[in-house]
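Sample entry follows:

:::
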Amino acid sequence: MALFSSLTPVFIAIVCVLIGVILKKTKGEKEKCETKSKPLSRPWVDEDLIDGTDHHLEEEDDDEEWQGLEENVAHVPFFVERYSEAEMIKRSQMFYELLNKRRSVRFLSDEPVPREVIDNVIRTAGTSPSGAHTEPWTFVVVQDPYLKHKIREIVEEEEEINYKKRMGDRWVNDLKRLRTNWIKEYLDTAPYLILIFKQVYGRLPNGKKKTHYYNEISVSIACGILLAALQ
C-alpha cells in the first residue's frame, strides 16, 4: 500500500503527459485539416470573375450533339496583305507608339464624340477570339445623364466596400501612390459609358442553355481590343 501511495504522483504525472500529447496531436490534425479545407485567400480576385466553364449546366442534355448547333459551319476564307520587312517594322513601331500613349486617366473630357465612333470601336472589340466562337460578351452604351449618374452611385458604393473591406491593406497601400479612391466623378463627365457584361451561357433555339467556354478570358481579351480601338 505504501509503495502504491508513493507511485501515485508518478502515475498521475504520466497520465497527464499522455493526455497532453493526445490533445496536442488531435489539435494539430484538426488544424491541418482546416488548413487543407480552407480556400486560399486572394482578396484581389472577385468571386464574380470566376469562369463557370467547368460547371455543367443543369439544362444541358449531354446526348444532344454539339448543343444543337450546326455541324457544318460555312468556311470563311482568310486573306492577308503581305508587307516587306521594312514596312512590317515601320507599321509595328507606329502601332506601338500609338498604344504607348494610352493612360488610365481619372479625369475625362465632356467633349462630344460621334456615336459612329463608339459603334465602330465596339464592332472592333467584337472581332475578338472566343472559346468555340461563342462570343460571350454584351456591350451596352449609356449616354443618358440620369442613368450615368445612377451607374456612378452603384460603382462608388461597391468601390468604397472594395477599399474598406475587400481589397486588403496591401492593395490599398499600393494604390496610395496613384492617389485613387472610390470617388468616380468622370462617370458623370464622360459623354458615353460602355458597360461590358460577360455571358456565362447562351440560349439555343430550343430554349436550352448553351455553354460559353472560357467566358471570362474571352471577355477580357475583347476588353483589351476595345481599349486599343479607343486609343
About this structure: The chain has a mean pLDDT of 83. Residues 128 and 222 are 5 Å apart (CA to CA). The first helix runs from residue 2 to 37.
